[in-house]
Amino acid sequence: MKRKSFLQGTVLALAVSLGSVATAQTAPAARSRLVLQVSDADPAKGALALNNAKNVQQELGAGKVDIEIVAYGHGIGMLGYAPSGVVEIMSRQSDGYAYVRP
């Protein structure tokens, strides 16, 4: 009697595993995430960060990628404010964003 229960459990576990594989294969792809750093007052570097964002959107599709530009230090005058740029970038990385410093 125990052998029958073991076999039923094995078959059930296999069915659940196969169901998980099928679901994983049909699930939509996760959105890409990118955070770009601007920490210099050099307008060329600010423009480079914007150009990088544009290129990523063109390559991956604007609707398939989340892009944030974090300005801090000398770059703060170019793009706005975050209380701590480094903490902001750390937070974005922990959320799955790729990190690029142009």
User: Spans with pLDDT under 50 lasting ≥5 residues?
Assistant: 5-23
Kindly report how far apart the N and C termini lie.
67 Å
How many strands in all? 3
Task: Give the averaged pLDDT, no decimals.
Answer: 78
Proportion in β-strands: 15-25%
Q: Helical element count?
A: 4
- Helix proportion of residues, in percent? 55-70%
Biggest beta sheet attributes: 3 strands, parallel
Q: Could you give the order of strands across the largest sheet?
A: 2-1-3
Provide the structure class: alpha/beta
Radius of gyration over alpha carbons? 23 Å
Shape call: flat
Order of helices and strands: HEHEHHE
Summarize the model shown.
The protein is of the alpha/beta class.
Structure description:
With 102 residues, the protein is an alpha/beta fold. It is built from 4 helices and 3 strands. The chain has a 3-stranded parallel β-sheet, sandwiched between helices. The protein is flat.
Task: Describe the protein's topology.
Elements (H helix, E strand, L loop, with lengths): L1 H25 L5 E7 L4 H18 L4 E7 L4 H4 L5 H10 L3 E3 L2
Parallel strand pairs: 1-2, 1-3
Q: What descriptors fit this protein?
A:
102 residues; 56% helix
